[in-house]
Design a protein that fits this description.
Keywords: Amino-acid biosynthesis, Decarboxylase, Lyase, Lysine biosynthesis, Pyridoxal phosphate. By secondary structure, the protein is α/β, with parallel strands linked by helices. 29% of the residues lie in helices and 25% in strands. Bound molecules: ligand LLP. Ligand LLP binds next to helix 10 and helix 11.
Length: 418
């Protein structure tokens, strides 16, 4: 069941009218459904209930403390790519021991903090990073748990900007290089080989690339075993797509079932790093129509959310559904381009939408729970939006709207020339 639904022409988020949320918190405002977040995490948990597993929610998708809190309470682990994300996990009550650290550019300081907190595993992305981690762990007198992120060179058939598992991408190491990195890791005193990792891309709507990648990983696991290097966990990354429009991605259950079928009787812990499939459809963005501006070429609806609030349409030509939160019967539908106030032609949320709207209406942008707020910025000196959790009939302000003071925090003018 969807946690955002219309009742007699009015949009509800769980048990609360969207109009009430807009009234209380203003717009632009991100709204996340607690039940929706819990439901998608539960789908992963149920599909994996009888095998050793760790679900590491990819924090980059939506790193709101309240969202992390909801997922941590339900037992999720986390996939992080910076120390900032790790501190968020800790602040939200997440368990570092269930956290994996991905990313191509981990600094020595980030490694030191992650070692101090005792994370589950470092997903190494280069031979050079292995040497730095060994040194940092030696300085602290500890042993760092590691996986190597392999780039299996499979085509994820998704948008090129979010495809990561092709050999021309900067991520991971080739299969051949991985062997060398593992051999070296096995020699080093301050790292311990724990797993094997990959992540091939995001918004995948087919199972084949996942399974192709997994098969390649398994040949490597066997090769490593023959050299006496044993792998305790297999981390298949994230990437399962969601429906924004008419995509038909596999369900969480069938995705997990396909992986399990391929793994057969192998005794490994399965680690997954889902982001979008947990958060995207658990969130929407509310925005108000400030002006309607019909022109000979296009009818523009100028709304108060811009590309600084939601960059996915501008950056990836992403299509997100846009609907008024209250149906209007007295206004004729027209074709609208929904555009923001930012001074860029790329500042649009949707183009060519058939909608019956007028100035002052509040619109909902669906599928905005992942890579929405986390990719927002202060471009054009625009304060970032508020974030609200809806939980049944309850509303919880997860992040207050930024103020103009927030915008200037940390900055200073030059001293007088003297
Ligand atoms: N693990 C790693 C190592 C990743 O790089 C990512 C996403 C994930 C897990 C989570 O993938 P997901 O399950 O969310 O597909 N900003 C883009 C998406 C970038 C994804 C980057 N990596 C967008 O808005 O479409």
């Amino acid at each position: 069941m969807t946690h955002f639904h219309y009742q007699q022409g009015e949009l509800f988020a769980e048990g609360v009218r969207a109009s009430e949320i807009a009234r209380q918190f203003g717009t632009p405002c991100y709204v996340y459904s607690r039940a929706a977040l819990e439901q998608s995490l539960a789908a992963y948990q149920q599909a994996l209930a009888d095998v050793p597993h760790l679900i590491c929610y990819a924090v980059k998708a939506n790193s709101s403390l309240a969202v992390l809190d909801i997922l941590a309470r339900q037992g999720a682990g986390f996939d992080i790519v910076s120390i900032g994300e790790l501190e968020r996990v800790v602040a939200a009550g997440g368990d570092p021991a269930k956290t994996v650290f991905s990313g191509v550019g981990k600094t020595a300081a980030e490694m030191a903090r992650a070692l101090e907190l005792g994370i589950h595993c470092f997903n190494l992305e280069s031979a050079a990073e292995l040497e730095v981690l060994n040194r940092v762990a030696a300085e602290r007198g500890v042993v760092a748990p590691v996986s190597v992120r392999v780039n299996p060179d499979v085509d994820a058939r998704t948008h090129p900007y979010i495809s990561t598992g092709l050999k021309e991408n900067k991520f991971g190491v080739t299969m051949e290089e991985a062997l060398r990195v593992y051999r070296r890791a096995a020699e080093l005193p301050h790292v311990a080989v724990r797993g094997l990792d990959c992540h091939i891309g995001s918004q995948l709507t087919e199972l084949t690339p996942f399974i192709d990648a997994l098969r390649r990983l398994l040949t490597l696991v066997d090769q490593l075993a023959s050299e006496g290097i044993s792998i305790e966990h297999l981390d298949l990354g994230g990437g399962l797509g969601v429906r924004y429009r008419d995509e038909e991605p596999p369900s969480i259950a069938s995705y997990v079932a396909a992986i399990r079928a391929e793994l057969g009787e192998r005794q490994v812990q399965l680690v997954l790093e889902p982001g979008r499939s947990i958060a995207a459809n658990a969130g929407l963005l509310l925005t108000t129509v400030e002006y309607t501006k019909p022109t000979p070429a296009h009818n523009f609806a100028l709304v108060d959310a811009g590309m600084n609030d939601m960059i996915r349409p501008a950056l990836y030509q992403a299509w997100l559904d846009i609907q008024p939160i209250e149906a209007r019967t007295e206004v004729q539908p027209r074709t609208w381009d929904i555009v923001g106030p930012v001074c860029e032609t790329a500042d649009f949320l949707g183009k060519g939408r058939e909608l019956a709207i007028a100035d002052g209406d509040v619109l909902a942008l669906f599928g905005a729970g992942a890579y929405g707020f986390t990719m927002s910025s202060n471009y054009n000196s625009r304060p970032r939006a508020a974030e609200v959790i809806v939980d049944g009939e309850q509303l919880h302000l997860a992040r207050r709207r930024e103020t103009l003071e927030d915008l200037l925090r940390g900055e200073q003018r030059l001293p007088d020339k003297g």
